[in-house]
Amino acid sequence: MFGADRLSDGLKLRFEVIGAVTDIKLPTTGRRERRDELWKQTCFEAFLTSDDFSGYLEFNFAPNGDWAAYQFEAYRDGGSNLTMDAPDIQTDRASDRLAVTATIARLPEELLSGQIQIGPAAILQTHHGNKSYWALAHPVERPDFHRPENFKINLD
Fold first, then answer.
1. Which residues contact 61 (CB under 8 A, 6 or more apart)?
2. Is the pTM of this model over 0.90?
């Protein structure tokens, strides 16, 4: 499940997995810092754009509090670090539920003026090392969260 709420200058994003979540391997090391390659383990991602924004943003949130944020000029073009404060990441895990809530305090001004298109995604790694890739759509054979067709949620 996924949910998103606008804040005055940012967003609050909620990712929730329901089921046998004890099979999901969570990253154990982390200092709530910016890190690349979070997609190599369990993490949650959100891709954002709007009609007034050229390109798109990618956010990665690990359950241990590590994070990453990138800005792209066009499909997979650019990929530079987005300058921003660290998001607040909260994780709640029970035997049948894993919830990660990420609060982004400040988004670029161009994203705040209109409707935001969001592409939520998740990479879930098991204790055996297997990974599954989750999104609202997989418009091509291999999972590719960067594709504009994945930005399915409209937030006014």
1. 13, 15, 38, 43, 44, 45, 46, 67, 87, 89, 100, 102
2. yes
